[in-house]
Amino acid sequence: MKSQNNVYLNEINGNYSTPVIVKTRLYDWHNNYKAEFKKKRLEYIDADGPRLTSLVQFPPGSAFKKCTHDRGEELLVLTGDFSNNGKKYGPGTYVRNPPNKKFTSATKDGCTLLFKTGQFQKLDNKRVVVHAAEHEDLWKSTLEPGVSRAELHQFLDETVSLYKIRPQCWVTFRLHTHSIEILVCDGTITVDGIRYTTGTWFRYPPNSRIKITSITLVCLYVKKGKMHIK
Using one digit for the tens of pLDDT, what is the confidence trace for 63-118? Predict the structure, then answer.
């Protein structure tokens, strides 16, 4: 349900017209309703079906029978090992399971994921698996010194990438019609003179300009597109 200002009520970070910054390390993990895993919700929007972004933590030995998300699921392995349909993936692996497809999941040693559901565009029905950490040929230098980018997915106006930034370098994102979502997968950065560490999640609306400066070697997850819900 929306308010008069297009803010989604009783939800998490439902206002897509203002910047959002979540320092996830300051928040506790919460069990899901069956205590099968722990989560930190970053956004939850219930508009014509839920749109969810979370950090999810599975304990060692977790295993789940075949399940399906009718609006698809997207995940990035941040730490540990994660198996999907029997194939084992390590940190830096990006997976997109399209809507209404059944998959089994498991982890031997435990893992932490960036997990998203309800965010597939219509006609975007391709399964994607990218092992960015294992394939140096995926990484391309950008116009900004010390910055490289690996494209994980592209469909219409949506792009998903990982960025590596060497210490004391920077990357600038200039947005016009698109929004942007950024997760600090590893490292320490500054934005507008404020320091942020691993696990910080950002979301900026259209017409924003963001300059990110690295203090350490940094890896960022970056998603750009028309994320707001009309």
Answer: 887 666 667 889 999 999 999 888 999 999 999 998 877 888 899 999 999 999 88
Which of 52-56, 61-65, 143-147 shows the lowest mean pLDDT across its residues? 61-65
Which of 83, 101, 131 terminates a domain? The answer is 131
82: nearest Cα among 121, 56, 44, 100: 56
Neighbours of 200 (CB within 10 A): 20
Longest alpha-carbon distance in the chain: 48
Q: Of 26, 44, 29, whose CA–CA distance to 203 is shortest?
A: 44
Residue 7 banded pLDDT, cuts 50, 70, 90: very low
Q: Is residue 14 part of a domain?
A: no
Q: Tell whether 35 and 114 lie within a shared domain.
A: yes
Same domain for 50 and 142? no
Do residues 97 and 73 touch, judged by C-beta distance below 8 A? Answer: yes
Are both 169 and 209 inside the same structural domain? yes
Same domain, 43 and 55: yes
d(CA 144, CA 68): 40
